């Protein structure tokens, strides 16, 4: 990355940033809460949040009429898990993006770049296309969970291959990791294409929709399935904050400052694989979040990971929820795939930011 | 304190450092000099623990450096490398603060900031605290990293008598005359505070003026070690640098100085 483009960047002085940061995080949390309430309130049935007390009452004491039972179903069993999954997916993708950018010291790095998403997608597509034939004996026992499980395993396997290629000499070579990730991603993409080529019309539609991402299939079992991964990232990310700040000066300098370089790399890769694998597993492929959210946070609050990581989590969750709300209402009663919404809203916003401010963090 | 014992570093059959012996001790400034590609920076990387010798050993008070954890190492030595590329827009204060916030140091934030502001002033960058690092000139950036290293030495609470080292790789390369003397004067002050200082210099005259001991390297080997007047010799320097060199002394204080010999 050249230094020239970084020279155009204007960020706030540190003292001002320090004052701004708590407000920024608090405001982000409030906006996220508002987005979550909106997400609970919007849908094709016309049931709104005003029905929530009745729905909760029905959930605890049993419904006394069909209308209340319906409200309970829509609010608590459809929209609530959907909202929670949306928050998880947004936060996971944004934090994974921020961690990758810090690790690779490259503002363009993204989980998509190192092949994790591609590996997860390949496994999911294989499940869709081959699920009724070759793979049926392996897939049938898992029922509707076959797809998420396959996607997560795909992400985990591609990460394992990647780490074993780049870590041959006992150390993870970041350059090799990036290049091997791009190659693996291309390979997974080719195999995915091959599967798509050999699929019938119904399968093709299924996998096209899945590859565009959707929160439509959210359910409580899926919520419970992603909780461990969410917790893993919550535990790992704070441990990485200082290390990632040190990494911004380069691996050698991070080591000079006392950072355990190898451990940091492995933890960050593990957390990325877990969060992205789980996100792809429950919501399909949703691009854009991992790159745009950390940048917006850096432009507002500076590049310190003490702000970038929590800020990205809050803002990522908000962005995905808002995109999902939009996806639900724009072509009612049908739904747009969220990936399309995300690109349509996000790309112009991102371009605007690039043109207006330079990009916070492009160096 | 920090010692290279027959340290050798070999890459693809080429010995970048060849059985080098060197020791730095508290209170002294040692300067490594030598032509380009002599292995100066590689030797400094070996001493910092960034790379490990393929043969021989690097010892920190008798312990092999491989057995010292990154966290402890960070408390015992600070390093300023030749170049650091920073791809995100941190302010000067934030970059220097990284030195004071080494994992595990656990200092309170106000104390850290106070310390860092002092270090920035020490390297002559007072008033630059809120400037964006990526917008600075080469010489200013270099001094930010020296301030960061000073913070790293200053920040930790040490057990009584624990020594620390400051390793500088060409800290004066892009500095003007006055900032060269600010930086090397600070290196001397650190030595007076009890640090072991190692500094790679290209300018033999700066080495003669500021170092207690000069280590002359050539093709990975240590050719000579000692005080300036024992190392800066016409014949030795002419052979190592491959060009005729004349040594003389400053009349007032007897410090040697070196000039290329252009002939009569």
How do the strands and helices of this protein lay out in sequence?
The complex is a heterodimer of chains A (363) and B (264).
Chain A: H1 3-7, H2 14-41, H3 52-61, H4 66-104, H5 116-130, H6 136-139, H7 146-166, H8 174-197, H9 201-212, H10 220-247, H11 251-256, H12 261-283, H13 289-301, H14 305-329, H15 338-357
Helix pairs in contact in A: 2-4, 2-14, 3-4, 4-10, 4-12, 4-13, 4-14, 5-7, 5-8, 5-9, 5-12, 7-8, 7-12, 10-12, 13-14, 13-15, 14-15
Chain B: E1 2-11, E2 14-24, E3 29-33, H1 40-48, E4 55-60, E5 63-64, H2 70-76, E6 77-80, H3 92-100, H4 109-122, H5 138-154, E7 165-169, H6 177-192, E8 196-200, H7 204-210, E9 213-218, E10 221-226, H8 228-231, H9 234-241, E11 245-249, E12 256-260
Parallel strand pairs in B: 3-8, 3-9, 6-7, 7-8
Antiparallel strand pairs in B: 1-2, 1-4, 4-5, 9-10, 11-12
Helix pairs in contact in B: 3-4, 3-5, 4-5
Gist of the model:
Chain A has 15 helices and no strands. With 363 residues, chain A is mainly α.
Distance between the termini of chain A: 5 Å
Q: So, CATH architecture of chain B?
A: 3-Layer(aba) Sandwich
Tell me the domain tally of chain B: 1
Q: What is the C-alpha radius of gyration of chain A, as a whole number of Å?
A: 21 Å
Which structural class best describes the helix and strand composition of chain A?
Answer: mainly alpha
Q: Low-confidence parts of chain A lasting 5 or more residues at pLDDT below 50?
A: 1-13, 359-363
Rg for CA atoms of chain B: 19 Å
Query: How many H/I helical runs of chain B?
Result: 9
Number of strands of chain A: 0
Q: What oligomeric state do the depicted chains represent? A: heterodimer
Question: Strand tally of chain B, please?
Answer: 12
Assigned CATH superfamily of chain B:
P-loop containing nucleotide triphosphate hydrolases
CATH C-level label of chain B: Alpha Beta
Mean pLDDT across residues of chain A: 81
Beta strand % of chain A = under 5%
